[in-house]
Amino acid sequence: MLSLIWLLLALFVAFPLLMLGIRAATDNGTFDLMPAINALRQTNTLRAFLNSLLLATLVGVLGTALGFLFAFTVARARVGRLMAWLLDTATLLPLISPPFTTSIAFVFSFGPRGFITHGVLGWENAQVYGLRSTLVAEALTYFPLAYMALRPMLTAIGGNLEEMAFSLGSSRWRAFRTVTLKLTVPGLANAFLLLFAASLADFATPLILAGNDLPVLPTEAYLQITGMFDLKGGAVLSLLLLVPALLVFLLQRRLVARRSYVTLGGKGVRASAGDSVTPKLRWVLVIGCMLVVLFIFYLYGLLAYASAVRAFGANGTPTLANYRVVFTQGMPAIRDTLIIAAIAMPLGGLYGVLVGSLVGRVRGGQALELVSMINYALPGTVVGIGYLVAFNTPPFLMTGTAAIIIACYIFRYSPSGIRTTIALLAQIDRSIEEASTSLGAGTATTFRRVMLPLVLPAFFAGLSVVFIRSMTAISATIFLVSIHWTLITVRILENMTELSLGPAAAFSIFVIVVVLVVTKGLELLLRQLSGRSAQLMMVERE
Amino acid sequence: MVDVRLEHLSAEFTHPSRGTVVAVRDVDLHVQSGELLTLLGPSGCGKTTVLRIIAGFQVPTAGRVFIDNQDVTSVLANRRDIGFVFQNYALFPHLTVQENVAYGLRVRRQSAADIVRNVEKVLQLVDLAGFGPRLPDELSGGQQQRVALARAVVIQPRVLLFDEPLSNLDAKLRVQMRSEIRELQRVLGITTVYVTHDQEEAMAISDRIAVMDQGRIAQCDTAEELYRRPASSFVASFLGRTNLLDASVVRRDGDRVILDMEGQCLSVEASAAFGAGDAVRAMIRPEAIGIGPAGEGLRATVVTRTYLGDKVEYVVRCASQDLHIVRFNPTESERFTPGSEVTISLPSDGVQLLPGN
Amino acid sequence: MRHIGPSISRRLVLGATLATPFIRRAAAATEVNAYSIWPENYAQPVFNVFEQATGIHVNFVRFSSGEALARVIAEKANPQVDLLFGGPVETFTAGVGKDVFAPYTSPEAAALPGRFKDPHGLWTAIADDPLVFMTNTAFLKQHNLSPPASWDDLLNPAYKNMLQMADARTSGTAVTRIFSIIMANNKDENAAFAYMKKLRQNVQLYTKSGGGGTLPIGLGQAGGGIFFIVDALYTRQQGYDVQISFPREGIGSAAECIALLQGARNPEPAKKLIDWATSPAMQSLYVKEKINFLPANAKVQPDQTMVDMLKNAKVLEIDDNWAGANRERIVARWVAEVLNS
Fold this sequence. Notes:
The structure holds three protein chains of three kinds. Chain B contains eight helices and 20 strands. Chain B is an alpha+beta fold.
């Protein structure tokens, strides 16, 4: 079993990267670094590289700040049930939306005749393209990652550490500064790196919003390949992207591996932190969050509106025509996407649980985990181009098949399943396995009867993530779709370039609804099977 | 000197599924200066809520809190000048022992030199000299407990509050730490409120114990008084093992009454509340009951006999009721095996009458 | 043929086997695969008519011209499709340079003028598509402008940050535009680039696709731009109030083409589609289906409104051979001197 896994990893993780490197470093079969070096020496390449880093840093900072605001509000400000629901929904939507949704809404809200800048504020020459829009759109898309990383942490700290500081005479602000904030630093760093990586890899937002003055690596690599027919140049650019991405990934691993001070759900921890914010501050927090929530709802409202009118901005007649397009012309894409998702889901879920349970139990488990994370850590552009280069020629001819897309999903989006499995198994005492063995059960029986039910939530988390990504990912798969197998997200991009905004919006709404329904269904199924409620929205970045 | 007074204190919560829950009902309590008073009761009796209200972590629904005759009901926790020791110690995990202890002193803007001196002194007091540079993670449970203690007392609080501080320690350490806490409290003379659900711990450490039941104070007195003269069967059975026997009052005889208990007449001390014909419950501690070979008197059958070295515990069946009996330093000849017939004797001065059902 | 791929692992095969019932699609008796550069709402109706007429089913996916060509090049060793359908001639001349097409001369080709066919039969025109200036009517009114009638009109400071046009790295529209400007400057490349650098000051955004700017202009987010007439007319059909005009110095036009790929797996039906697409059978559908191209085949009568519109327009001939030979150099120069200036 282990050797099979290693074989698969070699084929679907190492081989494409190797081929990508070879492609970048050879010219017509001979080793020649000059073209690659020339590509790197272009000022434009350096600019794109620096822009990518700048954008990722800013998105990391802004997104972490937003995530902290939301997490702190939920953990401390005693929000009511409705408010909590609003916050949850607003943080869920961006994570399960297909690409471009925020960007489309931005384009129509800002700019010289933007609904907000011109319609509401009356400004004449507002510009939408550039750093500001890209930054805000990406921060809004990815801050839920920071929120989800920080919320459990702040809730855990919330208990009597703050009360302790309080009883020792410190003010609220001082307790926040010297205890809460200090203890959250590893979480903040982790959130920052998550967002940094997400922004670094983001392809869709800068494609629409960055404009001419902010070239970034993922879009440049895409343009190099699709516009200049320059696979080599694209390979070089994507390898350039690989450096900071791997660096961030390793840094994050070290950070998480270091023992955190905060023990989640520790004994005697009581989350009665109602008094750690003053009523006035509570209002500031709640209003701050509500502004963000309203803005997010506004963006989705705009999307829903665009999907239901004849021509956005010109003809506001309500129509179902756009949805008709989705279910007629869009049907092949929908069918392909669902078939691919249906195959990738169980395989991905199984693969995640399998690798996750092997990690702690075999020699070389650490290496196994590291290698299994690589495709996830790399920006989709790198993985997509790597697969394109590696599987386009015999002996592993796979372009044009569904298998290449399925493989991409399995090896790119299973890390959440792997990590959840590792985490679940870490909580399970080794003696449980031993107890089963001592009762005469073989390894296989022990796995099936004891371990499998215990890691069921991880399996479902794997299913859920693979499904969400099958429905929403584009950065890697844009290079892998073919005449035979296409995907909804690629259709949305095509609709955007065809300027069929209505169908693009209708497709987006359709995807959001399907994802919500399926993940809720998975949650219910898991509850039925395991008898406990579970939160499955273990959403990862694209 | 500082005392703590609670007047008509009540606290309610909104529970997600059970609606409004009353945690504390109309509690009056006066903790004397320099006294160590324990709030004792089963979990959910409201004792921790009372403590947290004294600390200022929670606001009472009704009633008032006085510290040193000053109404502090609406004063924030950080202005009350209290030292609090949590069940899980709540040590700041990112700060060293030295920094943890110094935290409250820094807040109070003591000079660096003073801080070093005070921390040193208090660490010596809790037997942790030299542990200053360590992180809480690197300490044992008992040591963490001492850091928490040091951190609470170093600020010279007006009141010390303990919330089940020993429950995370093993039995042996618990006994040691409780005497250390008691000793420290006596030396420093700080008025202290201590919460526990362990009656032995409460008896060992307290000047007085307030037994709490369902949000109310059932009885507040010294350990000895509570043991000897519990005001209710709840208090009686919560403190130590006890026998509660149904009986009826035959007649009064001055400040005593004559009881009919399983056909046996017994004259016991009783308050004026009990008169002829009353159904009562007689509380008799196991060590007060005598046991001897079958003969004249109340007959019983031995059910079990447990030999514990310095004592022997019996369970005997007398008519329809089971009685616990403890004999200390039993002689070798005194051996009643299960099934054997014995005679038991009820002492007249070891019986406490409680209202019957 | 749809196939799920070589057996990579037992699990993949198992998954594939389980899913097989969902995967097999009823294949038409004959079929042909194409990358369409035309949008779906143009391609689908004509392919439907083709299938009715011949019984040949056309599988197609829509890609923008750059991406479609990139795919064709990438898949050269293992072609996934038989045809490249639609898209401006410069994409096809670039493809000739990459050696991806197979020669085929349709019977209609003989009658076509030189700029509508490759001398070796590697591609053939199916339509003609001139560039136009498109401006937002409200924007013009607000700034007291009349529709631009000269290339220099677009340098008016009133257009500052308000023009959108395509990015030459991805869009055939952009490349045709750049060639047009060079031609309008009598092939004086330096003068043309000097003009484009000045124009850059007024450009709000270079879009990824040729028509990317039409919707923003329709909405007033931008004031104007340079587009193929097909996109401009589509914008108008959608209901946006825009003006279409031409520069008096002249503007280029691009033939829309079709080409057979080397190694096509279904060469015979593909050739049938080329024959059909170059004939009046398809091109007479343009008027009926509101496909805003001019027919390439002289036997087909173009839409009268388009004829009227183009009556006074001066269309410049772009030398395809020169364009094909210089394309990469010109685009690189544009990226270096104009885009990143």
